[in-house]
Amino acid sequence: GIVEYDEVAQALADAGRVIEKARVDLRRQVAEAVEQTRQAEQRVAQNQRVEALGRLTGGMAHDFNNLLGVISNSAHLIQRNEVSRQTQMAVAATLRAVDSGSRLIQHLMRFAGCRPLQPKVVELGLYLPELQELLNSVLGRRVEISVAVATNTSPVFVDPGELELTLVNVGLNARDAMPCGGELRLRARNATPEDLEESTIPALQPSYVVITVADDGCGMDAATVERVFEPFFTTKPLGQGTGLGLSQVHGFCTQAGGKARLASTLGVGTTVSLLLPAASLHKDEVVTPATASPIDDPVIDGIRVLLVDDNEALGDVTATLLQSHGAHVLRANDAAAALRVLDVNEAAVDVVLSDVVMPGEMDGLALGRKLRLQRPELPVLLITGYSSAATAANDFVVLRKPCAASELLAALHGAVQSISNVIKTT
């Protein structure tokens, strides 16, 4: 009943309510911060797991390429001999299996970021509407496709063929998620800082472009979303999916210097976002490695080849293959050994054929560049299954593993002929 007492009590009550509200807000903010930290840790852990899978996949693919090379060259050697019709059929089936295995390895290389790329400036305002016709034919009439490119969207600097394959792979997954039909929305715009908050890309330098592919299909649960970019992971029945489609998407974006993300809600749909680097206004197209011109009858009879390969089995069968065509082959298992062979047999080598990825202080590319300085008249051919090596060696003729026998013979013939023509001209 005393006014002063009542005012003080009211003030204390108000202060108590304010403190309690502040305490509740603080608990909420702490809980949100803990949840955001947990989600960030999960994203980092997932990125690290996918990166580890990429490294493992790349190493396995490299070794598998060597095995395919042994099989392919051995089959070619058998094919050159007088064998029965049944044996010829078996050899042809073996070579077809090598081709199939090689295509599978290319998928794995894409996931691991180990496939040679040919990046170019791609204007999305022209490219995506043209791609819509291809998507219509691939996805069928049940899927309605809409394309929209925001005004002033920057061009991107990517391999257009890989971008096409990426969007087709995403589209095929969207089609399978909409068995009764639905809408596929293909959008492109310049990236904003918000687009980079959840990615491992720190800033908009260089600038980026976001391409999103959204569907209104069945969606995926959180456990499935965490694994979608893993190679061979698929929710499709046996025989209806390889599990390599979205891994190619991840590999393409990573190798292009960007990021792939996927968000999905059960019963609502899925959105795949491709964060890709924008093309600089002064960016020139990448010069692709030179390739040997095919000829009808590549003759290497009498050519002296220094074969440098750390894989003994592949080196043995490759040497036998070349010798069966009349070449004289010297062997070395690394770059240092190759230099020692050349020091002893300087005049006994017409061309060097070297693997790129080898143990030791010097790989095949470093060996090639050193030989260009010391022996500019000696042609050097490189062979590899890794894109980073092939891109760095774009001033050399680079053969892809596993290399067909005809392509290898043509490359050796062309290398020796080109040097002979230069000498004659001089």
Search tags:
five-stranded parallel beta sheet, 12 helices, 16% strand, elongated
Question: Could you walk me through the main structural features you see in this protein, from its secondary elements to its overall organization?
Answer:
The chain has 426 residues and is of the alpha/beta class. It contains twelve helices and twelve strands. The longest helix has 78 residues, at 3-80. The model is unreliable at 281-297 (pLDDT under 50).
Short description:
The chain is α/β, with parallel strands linked by helices and 426 residues long. Helix content is 52%, strand content 16%.
Write the layout of secondary structure elements.
Elements: H1 3-80, H2 85-112, E1 120-122, H3 124-139, E2 143-149, E3 156-158, H4 160-177, E4 182-190, H5 193-196, E5 208-215, H6 222-225, H7 245-255, E6 259-265, E7 269-277, E8 304-308, H8 312-324, E9 328-332, H9 335-344, E10 351-355, H10 364-374, E11 380-384, H11 387-392, E12 397-400, H12 405-425
Helix pairs in contact: 1-2, 1-8, 2-7, 3-4, 4-7
